Amino acid sequence: EAAKARAKELLDRFRREGAVPEDAPTARDGDVAIHSELAASDLPAALAALLDGARPPAYVAVLAWLPPFPELAAALGRLRETIANRTGVAATAAFGPRYLHSTGQLHKGDAGRGRFLVLTSESPDDVPIPDAADADGSSLGFRALERAQALGDVRALAEKGRRVVRLHLDSADPAALDRLAGAIPASRRLQ
Fold it and tell me: pLDDT confidence of 191, banded at 50, 70, 90?
């Protein structure tokens, strides 16, 4: 419910202001904008801040607000596997918004064990959502809805004190996810 409430607040602002309000990136590394309250000046530092000290029963959830194309799903799987191998903790990966209705509830009620890597990108296509079933008008499209849901979930996780890093990719392609996997520090396994 917390993520839904935050998303609704963002959509209300979208309807008033014409854009989903978004915090400025805390850093940028090439084609990746880093959004995090954790100290990080570049991609490896952001990932290290997220993953450092992770020990079971901790887990890492990769939450991808990207098109669920097969090539991206395969790259997301490789990223998840790299995180698990390099940290020694369980790692999951899921596409938003569908995870909100299943593991999204666990993420907020997991006694603070989760660490969250949220991936977003610009959607090239937008489809208007009718304001009413019998109306032609639309005050928002799926692009704004999805962005509000993603940012609402990030805010809900942060409010619960969870460790969160959001990476906004200039383009959603498998090479971008493979680059993220390559930036994960190699020495984070359990001692």
Answer: very low
What mean pLDDT do residues 106-113 have? 77
Residue 163 phi/psi, 5° resolution?
-80, 120
* Residues in Cβ contact with 182 at an 8 Å cutoff, skipping those fewer than 6 apart: none
Are the C-beta atoms of residues 72 and 177 closer than 8 Å to each other? Answer: yes
Task: Tell how far CA 172 is from the center of its chain.
Answer: 13
pLDDT at residue number 40: 87
- Residue from 190, 32, 41 nearest 117 by CA: 32
d(Cα 105, Cα 157) in Å, to the nearest integer?
10
Indicate the residue type of 14: F
- Which has the minimum average pLDDT: 15-24, 50-59, 109-118? 15-24
| Residue spans of alpha helices (H) in the chain | 2-17, 43-51, 70-87, 103-108, 142-159, 174-183
Give mean pLDDT, residues 89-101: 88
Q: What angle do CA 146, 3, 63 make, to 5 degrees?
A: 60
What is the C-alpha separation between 52 and 3, in angstroms, rounded?
Answer: 26
- In three-state secondary structure terms, 14 is helix
